[in-house]
Specification:
Layout lengths: L3 H13 L7 H31 L4 H7 L7 H11 L9 H9 L4 H13 L2 H11 L1 H24 L8 H8 L10 H36 L2 H9 L5 H9 L6 H13 L4 H13 L2 H7 L5 H25 L1
Amino acid sequence: MSDPLQLFSEWLVYDALGFAVGSKVGTTLDFFIYDSIKIVLLLFVIIFVMAVIRSYISQKRIKKVLSGRVPLVPNFFASLFGAATPFCSCSSIPIFISFLEAGVPLGTAFSFLVTSPLVNEYVAVLMLGFFGWEVAVAYVIAGVILGMIAGLFIGRMGMEKYLVKDIAMHKKNPKKEAKFNSYKERLAFAYSEAKDIVSKLWLWIMFGVGIGAVIHGFIPEEVVESIISNGGIFAVPLAVLVGIPIYANCSAVVPIAVVLFQKGVPLGTALAFMMATAALSLPEAIILRRVMRLKLVALFFGLVAAGIILIGYTFNIFF
């Protein structure tokens, strides 16, 4: 069944605007229109649904579960929750914000932000089909551990001061929990929550997706394959550096990782490219800049990139 949004995007670019199918400008515009509309709509729906669910769960309960005093336990649960959500790097940010507004510690919220785009059931099935159960299980475990350790490290560094003013205010003084007397009130709360967050993020989303679209349209896959294939001992960090500017979720990048592997690229190198593309997209960095200062964005990216490089070399040794 055809995607109506994709059909609309193709009609607008190739029929209404008259760009040639397969042209670089046409491909870039098609990517930008489709993904920007899709992400904004998806964000609204995700935030709306999560807000309805949150209306039934006490903020104190969420904070209690994700704010335990035993090291790594809250990070473990946040990473598991991230693994259970099928969000891309950009779509995970509103949930990350809602955690902060509920008073969840910054490091714990970061554990979710790392794992959510990296690990989900769909990716696990694809990994199982393409690489076998040993690689699939190892990948899931590696993703969850990466989220736990990155979140724990950021949490221990006391980086709350690098949140932007309005997010920091909610983090320090969580929103007063609303009381609902009817389902209609819950829906109204969810609509207001979704509208408020999307109104703050949509311009950043458009800018981020725009950059991703230019990269998608003007840099051929063959160039990416060539850089990674000829990297030698530095192929893993090169794969991470090449993957970061690209915006895609893991399910879309798994086939590319398979092609790289089939062309002789070591498994860990191919997976490092896939993980960097999914967890550390340039559009994500731009959107996160709306939530936090550049120093915290850079720390987050640096930590996760280092973790992915370590995972890549480890997979190369054992697989």
